[in-house]
Amino acid sequence: MVQGRTPHHPGYYALPITCYDQFNIMKYSEDQLNLINKPLESKIFLEGPGGTGKTTAASGRLLHFLSEGVRADSILIIVPQRTLSLPYTEVLKGVGLPAGGTVTVQTIGGLAQRMIELFWPAIAEKAGFRNPELDLTFLSLETAQYYMARIVKPLLRKGYFQTIKIERNRLYSQILDNLNKAALVGFPHTSIGERLKSSWVGEKSQERIYEEAGECAVRFRSYCLKNNLFDFSLKVEFFFNHLWTYAACYRHLTETYKHIIVDNIEEDTPVTHDMLAEWLPHFKSALVIYDTEGGFRSFLGSDPVNACKIKEVTGENIIFNKSFVTSSNLRAFACELGRSLHRIKEKETGDIRPVLIFKPHRYHIDMLQWVSEEIEKLVKEEQTKPEEIVVVSPFLTDSLRFSLMNRLKEKGIPVRSHRPSRALREEPEIQCLLTLAAIAHPAWKNLPNSFDLSYALMQAIEDLDLIRAQLLAENLYGKKENKPFLKSFDTISTALQERITYIAGEHYEILRIWIERYIEGPPAELDHFLSRLFGEVLSQKGFGFYSSLEAGDIVANLLDSVKNFRRIIIDNEEKSLGQEYIEMVQEGLVADQYIRSWIFEEKNSVLLAPAYTFLMSNRPVNYQFWLNAGSMGWWERLYQPLTHPYVLSRQWSVNRPWTDDDEFDSRERALYRLTQGLICRCRRKIYLGFSELGEQGYEQKGPLLRAIQRVLSKLPQEKLNV
Amino acid sequence: MFKPRLKQEYVLNYRGGKMGVSAVPGSGKTQTLSYLAAKLIRERIEEEEEEVLIVTLVNSAVENFSARVSAFIQSYGLLPHTGYRVRTLHGLSHDIVRERPSLVGLSDDFYIIDDRTTEQILKDCVQTWIRGNPYALLDFLTPDCNDEKISWLRRDKFPDVITEIARAFIKEAKDLQMTVTDIRNRLDRYSEKFPLIEMGLAIYEDYNRALSYRGGVDFDDLICLALKALKLDEAYLCRLRKRWPYILEDEAQDSSLLQEEILRLLSGHEGNWVRVGDPNQAIYETFTTANPKYLRNFLNEPEVTPRELPNSGRSTKSIINLANYLIRWTQNSHPVENLRNALVPPYIEQTDPDDPQPNPTDNLSKIKILLKKFTPGEEREFIINSLRKWLPQNQHSTVAVLMFKNDPASELVDELKKNKIDYVELLRSTKSTRDTAGALAHVLGYLAYPAYPAQLARLYEVWRRKDRDEEEIKNEIHRIASLLKNCQYVEDFLWPRMSKNWLEDMGLREEEEIYKELIIFRDLVRSWQKATLLPIDQLILTIAQDLFADSSELALSHKLSILLGQARKYHPEWRLPDFYRELSTIAKNERKFLGFSEEDIGFDPEKYKGKVIVSTMHKAKGLEWDRVYLMSVNNYDFPSALPHDTFISEKWFIRDNLNVTAETLAQLRALYSDSITEYKEGEETKKSRLACASERLRLLYVGITRAKKELIITWNSGPKFDQQAAAPLVALNSFTAGQKNI
Lengths: 722, 742
Known about the structure:
With 722 residues, chain A is α/β, with parallel strands linked by helices. Chain A is built from 28 helices and 16 strands.
């Protein structure tokens, strides 16, 4: 088995665990075996750079526990992000677990939610909730944004946030992010504004903006406490401040779990570290894993410096530093690039030239063409599995994603893309469903135009072309007293019926009559309506969603999103839930259900993803393509101007001004981490794509490109892989 | 290899400090500056992070500079594209802001809202304001305006006038770095009312709010914010100073106050800053905040080393004499005394006979200044006839027709088209940009209304647009398009059902070539119809991949897809007809859009021998042709501030011939300098007449100095036949006649 990959061979681990090493001696290195076979009651801090087999060793130790008869339900695995749990859940899938429940694999947020559900009534009042007798609701990212919007919109009309320029949705998400940072770093949310202000060196007017952001956070929190709403920040705060100190909960946790594995602790947050530091002494065994060059989620509150203090509570420190992934040539590249970014790295001997392939291009589009051709060569001529290729870019615009995916698909190369923040309104299937929903609810007085209806019909009725769909929409769709309605197919001339065809007419009639009957009855909840429309009509033979699995998946996402929304919505006398939901979709709501497609997607395909997203999947590949190497995006700090990942961290002392030197250094450090993280997850070659002019036509000379140029300028020119 | 002449050597001997260079047209300043940049990179740039920063005026010059510097440094054995950065002021500001967006209150994903969108936002704000202020501007109307007329003006004229005022007001306020609150606070100090400022301020406030909502900035914001960032964070400024230890500024005569401030900050007190320009070529003063006084003042600063590049090998002796005469006439004989400094020495000097760029052989008869009164149509006809005679004998020469405004230039283009004369445009957007946008617009237009046979036929022609040059293929394309036009029910061709299949029913199977062609076309249109479900940006990319093969066309489509994707974001109600209209405005040249073609990013006239280049005089700056026509040199396009001159900015319905835009700006500036009580109505109108006349004189000078060997200048009497030959034109005519007599 290749090191660093997650084993997912079904039944592989169902072998008697005692035979494990004997049968699979090649699987692990000596260092890994040593770690796996440590006495059960060891507390170990395992550190090393990416690609050195830490997670593989931890999976082995997990299996070792199980083979030694440790009860599965006494094992807790903590990861900072759901995607990072995949190596463990996949290992566990293959194991025939003995009796004793299941291993808990959770993020700290997930664990917090479980505990809140368990202990809510007992502690609610003490935690400041004003109506503890009522049910509690957990907010998703989208529903939290919805409530934040309700709080902020009236303030915007009063002139709040006047001197900054930011899209509304990002404004809401940055205030939420501040709340999350306060919770995860462990300072009161009431001090957000003050902390940001105290580090500010710029114009005075910005200080008012920070105060306003702080005020919105306070108002939001107060609203949540009044209505028993748990956004992520409150969930975390409630867990750490109230449940962790609540005897029953504390007892429950410390008595349930006896063994713990914490992976990627450098990507986790200070309060998690604090809690673990207190909790670890209660476990019989612990394995805490630290990626020495990680910290990619610092913009989300992760704190690799703080994570190191866990070392003090574990008994033993083990270091892995032999990479199972990268070649010496790639390590030499990592070293030179690190030096070029002013980070001292131990000198590696190796030749960069065979592992760094690049070709300068004039236009962005030429670069995409080159990338697709090189991928085609790798797959077709060198028989590389598509899953061994990843294309990363600092940002993934819709146009870039679409252009490259199309080019690869045309060449017959399977490709998938991870880009979580895709607005629901961009999905044609969702547009179709919501158009039909609007027509089925005339009381909403939401009038889709005839273009929308023709596109909806094109999708709803199998094999219906654009022209006939338009003929249907133009001739059978009407609006009366500001309400939409559909006319019967029989009302148009025979000649027109013939043009549209009777088959299409028949299906149109089924749909129309279904909607008509629905209108006659009492309106259902939006998710119930959509579910019925899909189940009773659109997924039936002769209708558009009949043979599309993908459409089914998108509909399921939509239903989840609506359900989620319905659970939390507070009655609005002016608008129904459906109306509110549709407005939110039109405002660019992003569904947070993407994990579904993440898990169930086609695996053997080229992955196209933002660089950080790829890193957080923690999966090495043979070939990486770095797109837009000249883009400034490679070192831009996300989440500005209302929040600040460094100032709102524990490493920053209050009142210390954030200077340009700090800015430059933090960015360079982030670029260093990012590139090192990428290189140590690459086995063979890195292809560098860059064009003089970027997507928008601007010249590209960003810091990554300059850093690489510095590396290249030290190499003999004629031998480069240009 | 570049062999500098003596005066160029003086410039190239620069080692540091501040230097100002006055360069006449054709003196090789781009070449000299590029060479200087390369020398500095080789000799002075020590750290890897350091770059020579070259700031120029327009996008088309960026590419030109970049290519030249790159070639020079490669000849030194250095890596290309390293050690320097060429930027327009906007590009530089973008770099500065992009690196520290939060410093100036921007989100990390801030974006620049393009001109069309900002223009639309501005118009919306103006409409809102007019609705809320029905009695606005009444005090400024001529006394003969009755209620009926006023109501007509309010409906038909006010929106444009107020938009113009608001646009200028916002630009000026940003240039002065006055925020809405600043202006409001200053106004509050006075009990007196200033309705023009109040109006500008209300619209400015509304406009800003609209931009904030979108999370974007306009181009002017970008420059203000860059300056603000530099002022706010000393450490950031220091870092940038370290990065750009040498600043070379081209076209410094068109520098604005903000540009000067930014570059002054970046270079620092002891810094290295070279400014090159020609005060006689300052042609952006009246519609931007540029002003040649900044360069003039700089040249007079004690620590600045002044240099001159007076030699030009571009034009014949006679053309140089004519240009020099225009300077002399302006200085000594201009009928309006206040305009006598509009053009200033140095005069253009010829190069030495052994110069690598000697002046072309002189021929005075190749200069024609026609005082004959043409109507606009007659003038076009005259030019077309002249070109028809000249082109066949001069297929290896270059020629351009230049004029002041875009619209008459487009009319000339139509005439050239009719007369089948090969041409290239340098107007708002270039022809290739417009062709690309146009082809995409046609496809969207069809997809919006796919059942129309005429649209389908047009779509077919668009698809085959590049094959229309060959007569035989052209006939075939025409035949197929006619067949499609007569297909009554398009769906019977594209999506036939059992009983009706147009392609089969027409018996086309026997004509194998046509049949095959139609099958291919059908498949293509089907795939595009299916793609209508995609978001607009993806639809554009899908179409572009089928429609274009050139990288520049594909790159432009990509850029257009992003533009329309953004438009969709802020106009969720937009559907295909709206996107079609949006692309059409670019295709029809109603809107500026910077593409990727050679004309957009660096035009070389030498590549278009035997073709007519049609351009505005502004766009022609920096370029040269063997023969140049200057059209429409009348007293409307080139006024001289004489009593009979009329000015575009003075509206007939505004009393006392006031230029309300100029008056508004004067009030704003007075408010800024705390001297508003000294403001006197009408004074600024007079000043702006002088400024306009002064700039047009320089524009004429720029036009003349584009010609290498031959020059023809004409004028027309305008749409109402009441205009006259411009005063300098009459003077030039007399001069030429005198020369010829000698």
